[in-house]
Write a structure and sequence with these properties.
Layout lengths: L1 H25 L8 H20 L3 E8 L2 E12 L4 E2 L6 E2 L4 H14 L9 H4 L17 H5 L24 H4 L16 H15 L3 H10 L8 E2 L11 E2 L5 E2 L8 H4 L1 E3 L1 H15 L9 H7 L19 E4 L4 E9 L2 E8 L4 E7 L4
Antiparallel strand pairs: 1-2, 1-12, 2-3, 4-8, 5-8, 6-7, 9-10, 10-11, 11-12
Helix pairs in contact: 1-2, 3-7, 3-8
Length: 357
């Protein structure tokens, strides 16, 4: 757990530095027209230094400011053995950033009144049961699952990374397991919860979760090169490596799909960030309504026992008196990813890394 927290803090710190620096410098472009180019040069040098220090094989990164793609670039190799370069079009598993898409799917159904996030999980997933140590599992509502306060356990269950089972098989493993905490008592990060949300999407929409995400989020956002391995045809896939340069094959399928199984690239994530920013600023024909997106981007766990983790629906929230940002990071099968959006300033930063650590 300590290693996971340290990785999260390192990625979060990197993105904070970039977001804050970008805010200050790009706002000065009116008087210093070459400042953005200078700043991008600093970022390139920073990434190149980190690649050398941490023995990273490949990185792709992008920054947007207002409606412009300020910068996107690949560094190193997507396939070191065959000397295929990493580019902004290279696909990599984005890990827990997948949760932002799963939460968006639930909120699409919520705004269409096909479900209500205040209602119990079991109302939409009658297959669900778990040992509760006296707690009423009807207190596990969809909102509590979205913000990791449901008390559901972490991903220790048998076959969590099974390549032969689906997310809909998860419920059969929970019947003899126990809640980690009473519902709505404490922040307790749970991949299990998000895979149960995928099962809810399946039950309500009558579409398999990967197809729902493709049809309702990816395709309308123009993300035609993103999706789920062995569900959609994905091209330009990066290999993943250890810091010693050892290659490990991709996991072709995982039951953990809705919590961390999506593949994407910087080009597509730029389109996703721009879509969300446009909706936040009033776009009415997007993948979700502006008022729903602002709910997604709002702190939802003020009443939960927690220290540093302020969460919206599928995002971590950082705010002060003058601004706020939404962020998610992912780490799956040696890859690392980060997506940071400052919606008020119409800015975003994206990183994909194909090396562990």
């Amino acid at each position: 757990m300590t290693e996971i927290v340290l990785k999260y803090i390192e990625m979060r710190t990197l993105l904070i530095i970039i977001a804050c620096t970008l805010t200050f410098n790009l706002n000065a472009q009116n008087t210093q027209s070459n400042k953005a180019e200078e700043l991008i040069g600093e970022y390139k040098k920073f990434i190149e230094n980190k690649m050398a220090e941490d023995k990273l094989v490949g990185i792709s990164a992008g920054i947007i400011y207002y409606d412009s793609i300020v910068w996107k670039q690949g560094f190193g190799f997507a396939d070191m053995e065959n000397e295929i370069p990493m580019t902004s079009a290279t696909n990599l598993c984005i890990g827990s950033i997948t949760k932002s898409f799963t939460a968006l799917g639930i909120m699409q159904l919520h705004e269409k009144h096909l479900l209500d996030i205040k209602n119990p999980l079991v109302e939409y997933l009658p297959e669900f049961s778990i040992q509760s140590r006296g707690a009423d599992i009807r207190n596990i509502d969809l909102k509590s699952v979205l913000i990791h306060s449901s008390g559901l356990p972490k991903e220790f269950l048998l076959n969590a990374d099974s390549e032969t089972e689906k997310y809909t098989d998860l419920v059969k493993y929970l019947k003899d397991e126990y809640l980690g905490y009473p519902p709505n008592f404490e922040f307790h990060y749970s991949n299990i919860g998000y895979n149960l949300l995928a099962h809810v999407i399946y039950n309500i929409s009558k579409q398999d979760y990967p197809n729902y995400i493709k049809n309702k989020i990816l395709a309308p956002s123009g993300m035609i090169n993103s999706g789920f391995y062995n569900y959609q045809s994905l091209s330009k896939m990066s290999r993943t490596y250890t810091t010693e340069g050892d290659y490990y094959p991709l996991m072709e399928k995982s039951r953990n799909i809705a919590a961390g199984g999506m593949y994407s690239n910087v080009d597509d994530l730029i389109l996703f960030a721009k879509e969300l920013i446009a909706i936040y600023h009033g776009k009415q024909s997007g993948i979700i309504k502006p008022e729903t997106l602002k709910e997604i981007f709002s702190v939802q766990n003020d009443e939960i026992r927690i220290e540093d983790y302020k969460t919206g629906f599928g995002w971590f929230i950082y705010e002060n008196d003058s601004n706020f940002a939404v962020q998610n990071t992912g780490s799956t099968h040696l890859s690392n990813a980060g997506l940071w959006i400052l919606p008020e300033q119409k800015m975003a930063a994206i990183f994909l890394i194909n090396t562990v650590g």
